[in-house]
Amino acid sequence: MTIIVNDNFQRANANPIGGIYTTLNLENAIQIVSNLAEGSVTAANNSVIDTSNIYLADQYCIGTIGSAPANGASFYFYIRCINPTGSWSYMRLKVAQGNALATLSRAVSETATSVATFALNSLPANGDTYMLWAQGQTYTVAQNGVVIGSYFDPASTLTSGNPGFGFSTTGILSNSQLSNFQTGDSSAAGAYFG
């Protein structure tokens, strides 16, 4: 099992978050406030990618909600993000406040397209975990350790890159926060299911 990052944000407040993370081009930085990660700009997208570690093509990320999304806020979970400081490409899972569906999007050269939606077992809540992982051309999504769906990507356009996370914020930054972010290669994904 290879866990590459297990970040619980238990450190001094910081804006930007720094360390292993790079802000995604055309988006805003992530900050740490009171041991939680959150966006730094209201009414905007705020996202970072781990650019310090090397990942296999088959990779995953897991995020734990530190405060339930409110007032239209959303969480983003990225894998296979390439060229995060330029014309980026990625697979992204979006989980939004009050929405019973999670949306998987594929972006190529900064153009994103929704490719699948998955019914959540429950609306996003504080303490929930969400996982997005890739094995070959198949992307699988889980909520709280239960698989809620998979998508086979016939385009097979993304074969490498790094994971990350982000938020679509509203007027209050604390309306969407993470308490933990974990990444690794997909051989470690089974540990998520106990």
Describe the structure.
By secondary structure, this protein is an all-beta fold. It has a single domain (3-188), classed as Exo-inulinase, domain 1 (Jelly Rolls, Sandwich). Helices cover 0% and strands 52% of the residues. It has strands spanning 3-7, 21-23, 30-33, 36-39, 45-50, 59-67, 74-82, 89-96, 101-108, 111-119, 129-135, 138-143, 146-152, 162-168, 177-185. Strand 9 and strand 10 (111-119) form a beta hairpin. The mean pLDDT is 93.
What's the short story on this structure?
With 194 residues, the chain is an all-beta fold.
Global shape:
globular
Number of strands: 15
What oligomeric state is this? single chain
Compute the separation of the termini in Å: 13 Å
Return the average pLDDT rounded to an integer: 93
Largest sheet: 8 strands, antiparallel
Report the β-strand fraction as a percent range. Answer: over 45%
Enumerate the spans where pLDDT stays under 50 for 5 or more consecutive residues.
none
Structural class: mainly beta
CATH architecture: Sandwich
Radius of gyration: 15 Å
Summarize the amount of helix as a percent range: under 10%
Number of helical runs? 0
SSE pattern: EEEEEEEEEEEEEEE
Any idea of the CATH class?
Mainly Beta
| CATH fold-level name | Jelly Rolls
